[in-house]
Amino acid sequence: MRHALLRYLTKTFAACTLTRSAATMGPPMKILLIEDDPHTAAYVANGLREHGHVVDHSASGRDGLFLASAGGYDVMVIDRMLPGLDGLAIVKTIRAAGTRAPVLLLTTLGGVNDRVEGLEAGADDYLTKPFAFAELLARLNALARRPPIVDEATVLRVADLELDRLKRTVTRRGKRIELQPQEFRLLEYLMRNTGQVVTRTMLLEHVWEFHFDPHTSIVETHISRLRAKVDREFGEELIHTVRGSGYSLGVAQ
User: Fold this and answer.
1) Which domain holds residue 57?
2) 217 and 139 assigned to the same domain
3) What is the DSSP string of 148-164?
4) What's the CA dihedral at 113, 119, 124, 128 to 10 degrees?
5) Which of 53, 76, 98, 164 is placed for a possible disulfide with 48 were both Cys, Cβ 3.0 to 4.6 Å?
6) CB neighbours (10 Å) of residue 230?
7) What is the CA radius of gyration of the chain?
8) Is residue 215 part of a domain?
């Protein structure tokens, strides 16, 4: 009886271990790693390859930008402090060019302002060094599971406001409006939901991809900046505050 129970427990433990391993590995991905520290690069690249992923590695910012701009990656891991061109500049450049592959920033800077700066630049996640490889892998798998953005319309229009999603340009009455990457994403989300009330939580989830409240005024600050650029010079407000609910975009009735 004891032997039978022992065999049962052994088989059950082995099955659970295999299940956890399969879940941890996830589907094979093509990953770009931009990291100048050779020890960190080897640690990450070897671990990812052991889990069946294809890894391209660059040790410099400029070479990394060239690879990132070429596209074809499921996810990118970019160190913030790089020689030649830093990680924030790389993220801003590829986002401005329309590259949508998820980006995980690696950094030794762990302050709230540092994290917010990285996310506002267009990164999707942020991991502070030193880190456990298991956490890195879990975060990459989570980024890869996000559904791809489906192109429904290249150009969005509301009244005299126009947003070109491919050219990454915004104009109103034919005048070009310069937006930061996160401001562009915010305006795009508002225009996709024209006439509807979008809550602060919805904006945090869909624009910043936060599934928690960061307890900052990040939404209010960006709405204020966006209004200054989109509404203030044109006399007619398109971005409206719905008190107690959130925000809406459209022509006032």
Assistant:
1) 2-145
2) no
3) PPP---SEEEETTEEEE
4) -30
5) 53
6) 22
7) 22
8) yes
Taking the C-alpha atoms of residue 217 and residue 215, their distance in angstroms, rounded to an integer, is: 7
CA 10 to chain centre: 42
Nearest to 143 by CA among 126, 120, 166, 118: 126
Does residue 98 have a pLDDT over 90? no
Six-digit token pair at 87?
Answer: 């990680």
CB 125 within 8 A of CB 106: no
Give the mean pLDDT of 58-81: 93
Sign, Cα dihedral of 44, 181, 115, 202:
negative
Give the DSSP H/E element, type plus range, for residue 247.
strand 246-249
9 pLDDT tier (thresholds 50, 70, 90): very low
Evaluate whether 54 touches 31 at the Cβ level (below 8 Å): yes
Task: Examine the pLDDT at 153 and tell me if it is beyond 80.
Answer: no
Residue 68 pLDDT greater than 60, yes or no: yes
CB neighbour list of residue 141: distance below 8 Å, 6 or more residues apart: 24, 26
In a domain, 150, yes or no: no
Residues 112 and 213 in one domain: no
Percent of the chain, pLDDT > 90? 58
Tokens of 43: 């640690």
Residue 237 pLDDT grade (very low, low, confident, very high; cuts 50, 70, 90): very high
Do 10 and 108 lie in a common domain? yes
